[in-house]
Amino acid sequence: MRTEEVPPTVDSITGVESKDVVIDSETRVYVRVYKPQNVGKVGVPVYIHGDGFCMMTPSSPLYQNYLNNLSFKANVIVVSVNYRTAPEYPLPIGYDDSWAAFKWVFESNHAEPWLRDHVDLSRVYMAGDSAGANIVHNLARRVEKQGDMTPICPLKGIILVQPYFWGKDRIGPEEKKVQPIGFNSLLMDKVWMVASPNSSGLDDPRLNPGMDHELGNLGTYKVLVSVAELDAHRDIGFYYKDLLLKSGWKGDIQVIETLGEDPVFHLFNPDSPKAADLMNQFAEFLNS
């Protein structure tokens, strides 16, 4: 599948300016950075796009539009990551590229003036949808594991939007749930195996958090999970909350559910009242 791409721009409605910055000349991994008008020192969500670890980029119109509006609404600098995608670049390459972008935000004497002049490094977040939310969760686990990084990489919180978690025996109540018409659980199985052919399978702890025996070491203390009622992964979001609370993790997690909506409705119908309400909740989380 190919996807349309659009260049960075100055948005005529919001005034938000965006530009692409290559962060690794060897891999050509880049980020698209969004800056609102008249901005001082603000927070920064590092955003990881979704679509099965295989498709989309920060240049996709859906993400250009949505993250432009998030930057405006929340008054934050947004860093949108172009990680290399499967099957040409199987996981963990996508995790590693996203981790490199996260570390890039914290570079001392930053060469990127938008970050150097406008980012409050005590307010760094990560956010993502679907497969991107899976990457965000796994990077938050990596923050905890990288002891040498912890002093310079405080992660204030993460936003997981309809996260792609899965498992061989299905996760939590998902096993008993009546799935939407057209949903194909075999396809959901194969997405992971295409993206991560060398993994341990559907119960790999990166995909099934119930198999992560050190889940309580998540490297942040503030988590927001967004689920949609008609999404086949809806129950998994609540199950993730239960797992975290039982793991000994000491943070605060909230799950918000949007009723009557399909997966990633906020990208496909960003002007709808429910998408606007969700945007407001994201902005509040990023500024609380």
TrEMBL record:
It holds the Pfam family Abhydrolase_3. InterPro entries: AB_hydrolase_3 (IPR013094), AB_hydrolase_fold (IPR029058), Carboxylest/Gibb_receptor (IPR050466), Lipase_GDXG_put_SER_AS (IPR033140). GO terms for molecular function: hydrolase activity. The active site is at S130. Residues 46-259 form the Alpha/beta hydrolase fold-3 domain. PANTHER family: ARYLACETAMIDE DEACETYLASE, CARBOXYLESTERASE 12-RELATED. Belongs to the 'GDXG' lipolytic enzyme family. This is Alpha/beta hydrolase fold-3 domain-containing protein. It comes from Saponaria officinalis (Common soapwort).
